[in-house]
Specification:
The chain has 396 residues and is mainly beta. Helix content is 12%, strand content 45%. It folds into 2 domains: 187 residues, Ganglioside M2 Activator Protein, Chain: A; 164 residues, Ganglioside M2 Activator Protein, Chain: A. Strands 1, 2, 6, 7, 9, 10 and 11 form a 7-stranded antiparallel β-sheet that branches. Strands 12, 13, 17, 18, 20, 21 and 22 form a 7-stranded antiparallel β-sheet that branches. Strands 3, 4, 5 and 8 form a 4-stranded antiparallel β-sheet that branches. A hairpin with a 2-residue loop joins strand 6 and strand 7. The relative contact order is 0.21.
Amino acid sequence: MNPLNGLIVILTFLLISAQSTEAFYRFIPDDIDLVSDCQNHPNFGGVSDLVDLTAFDLSYDDLSVHAKGTIEIVWDVEENDRISTHCELKKFFRGTWQPTTFLVIIKDVCEQMKDTTSILYDVWTKHIISEDIHCPAKGSKYVHEQYLISVDFNVSGINMEGRYKIVSILRAYDETNQEKANAICIEFLGDIIKSQRVTMNSLNVLIVVFAFATVTVQRGEALYRFIPEDVDLFRDCQHQPKLRGINDFLNLSDFGLSYNDEGIHTNGTIVVVWDVEENDRISVHCELKKFVRGTWQPTMFSVIIKDLCKQMKDTTSIVYDAWTRHITSKDIHCLAKGRKYVHEPYSISVDFNVSGMNMEGRYKIVGILRAYDEKNREKANAICSEVPGDIIKVGR
């Protein structure tokens, strides 16, 4: 890896490491009806085409859904049909519903119903009062013991708060693996909040299972690594032609970096060439984007630093821990044109743990720095750079 911008490298990995704390969340539906037919799939059946819930009861408290009673399948499927389920969590972001990395695909629902190690068995079929679990078929009835479904979930590595909808599609395939023309699509809207007291009345238990499967099935923690596309690492932002690039930010002629599986190893001096003054406020916005379905999609990983100088001096901040504590000067000065930062040799780990989601895939990290004068007016010299690469799983 050639000499690069040490500060931006650090901010890059802040994007992930800054969000490593674990938190508990809860999905709060918009109303007690919860489920609606999919808005973008008018040719699919809806919830009333799937199950009859007249003999099924649900109640809700702060900890869980309380369920009991009988559900009847009204969907026109046969016991030998293979049922697949595709559940996706979408977030309302910048005015549109964006895909997230939370996705559950069950290729054979019946197989999962009978598999005592599956999430579907754990949250649903183990509570059916029958020693012989039958596959879904029109007219089938499932009688349940009274049981609880937890609606809280814990996630580390990501802030889940926001506006969401869960879209679930069920498809049936006959014995020749031909799809039947009676797919079901349902969605439900609500907010994910950090756990607090809420109330919710009767709901569709089967859909609750699928809904929270989109989160709970991915709880296992894994170790990941970001692999940059090439040794140059950075490039100017492709979709921000009016913003300046990496060469307008720093002089790196006396700064060295090397890279191996253990991390980025760095030492030397960086010189600020960006036309900013010490009293300017510098903001940083870093965002992780994933290449999905042919386009770069926003993810829920982002870091916003409103005052970089303040974070540089705050010994409890991630900026201080990952960067400024390695500057040899005891007096840390804010960024300004001509300023030099001399570093002791140190390493930055590029591995990170995430639970609650599968991080593998093609990504790019987009970092934007903006300067504001003493009157809080933005200067016309913002910096934007991006780092394309892949995130791979390296262990658990």
